[in-house]
Sequence to fold (338 residues):
Amino acid sequence: MKVGFDISQIAYRGGVVTYTKSLAKELQKNPQLDMKFFYASLRKPYQGSLANVKNFKIPSSLSEIFFNRIRMTPIERFLGPIDIFHSSDWIQPPTKAKKVTTYHDVVPLKYPQWSTPKIVEVHKRRLKIVEKEIDMVIAVSNATKKDLLENSIIPEEKIRVIYEAADAKFKPQDKSEIEAFKRKLKLPEGYVLAIGGVGERRNLDRIKEASKGYNLVITGETIPWLSDDDLPLLYAGASVLLYPSFYEGFGLPILEAMSCETPVITSNISSMPEVGGEAALSVNPEDENEIKKRLKQVIEDSDLRTQLIKKGLEQAKKFSWEKCAKETFEIYQQLTRV
Fold:
């Protein structure tokens, strides 16, 4: 089976990058698949280890116009004949192949105030193409599937939930390496870790208030954004991941922290209960006092910490990229049998 897979998003950073890299790597291991990877970026040449990558120096703004608006040239012009084309969340090129796409979240549709007007415009335009042409949509959580059903006309039978997972590098870390990492970044001995982001989505104002009296570290704010290789040590060095986000399509940091033996406090809404399960402490993200109370519990109660660490490791094991790739391959098979 010849599969075209758009990996252009790996030029950026975040959960979409993790998904794209990890799924592509696993799919390439499948002997029943002939993978052809489409990579279009002007800012960053492809530097990964995937085979059969078709690399094109096209800026994202131009590829969006070319594939989402003009729509005169099929993706086969770049990849050759294919049976399946699995698109990113940015462009939807014309193709004769069966079409699969992944929705990581619907932030530009549901919460446009958290995005730029240009991103909102692009996602609305692309959604119209998806609604008209797509054969199958992969949603990364049941919460995202629900959001798609409420914010699009994609029929439920064309949406399949396939979970993401933490990368294998997220695992318990050596204590001496953690201490060396803290010294290198001048991090305090015990710190509360929060993940930064655009707009109000990550609930940083309440996090800052609830964390008064503790050492708070916020990625992208109190410390720079770190490389992927440094993230396991950042998680492992934290006393707790405080993640009371207002909305997540999946919420990879929850599993990443759990895999590094870090307790997690997260929201009781959106996709976060799916991902954290009973291994995370849940809070109402609107309730600053509840966040503060849970934070105090995790930091001061050693028995609770031990329990959360143990449950977290077990919860993270329920998710894997091997399973994600297997279920994605099953969709490809289903579509090509039709």
Q: What stands out?
A: The domain at 2-165+320-337 is CATH 3.40.50.2000 (Rossmann fold). The radius of gyration is 20 Å. DSSP finds 14 helices and twelve strands in the chain.
